Amino acid sequence: MFITFxxxxxxxxxxxxxxxxxxxxxxxxRVTATREPGGCPIADQMRAILLxxxxxxxxxxxxxxxxxxxxxxxxxxxxxxxxxxxxxVLCDRFTDATVAYQGHGRELDLATIEQLNRLATGGxxxxxxxxxxxxxxxxxxRARARIEAATGAREERFELESILFHERVRQGxxxxxxxxxxxxxxxxxxxxxxxxxxxxxAALSGKLSVLGEAVSVPQQAER
Length: 223
What we know:
five-stranded parallel β-sheet, disordered C terminus, Rossmann fold, single chain, globular, about 220 residues, about 10% strand, alpha/beta, about 50% helix
C-alpha cells in the first residue's frame, strides 16, 4: 500500500509519518518510509539544490523540472521496488506537493505539471493521502523554530517565501483534497503532536482494512 503525507510547512506531517511507521512496524508490517524531494542519493543531491535559500535565483520552471527529475529517480529506485516487495510505503510529499507548490504557489500551468507528474511516476499514484492541515502562520512558526534548532544544512528556501505564497499552497492542497475525497483524508494539525496523532488514527481506522489490525484508535476522546 502506498500512502503519502502532505501539507504546508510545519504542519507536522513528518512527525505523523514517523509515528504511523512505528505503529505499523509494531504490528509486524514491513514499512519503507521515504520523502520528497530526496529519498535516494541522486534525488537527495537535487533536494540540497532545491531547498537551499542561497539558490533563490532558480526559476519556477527549473524548479519544477528538478522536482520531476528527483521524483523519477526516487520512484524507480525506492518506491516501486518497495511496493513490489509487498511493503507499505509511507512518503513525505509526492505529486500533490508539486501541484500545490509549483502549480498554485508559483502559478505554473497545472496541465503541464500533471503531465510531468505522470511522466516522472510512470502513472504511479498513492492509494491514500493524509493532508495535515493547519493555518499558514502556525506552520511557518513551527518550521522556523525547527530550522533554528537544526545543526545541518538550513533547508529554508520555501519558508522564506511570502505569506501569500503559502496561502496559495494551502488553498491548492485543500482544493485538491475536495476534488478527490476518496483518496484524501484531511486532518486538523493545528494542535499538538498527540492530538494530531489521535485524529490521524481515527481517520485511518476505516481506511486501512487491507492491513487488517494495523492501526488502532486510542481510547481517549479525540481532542
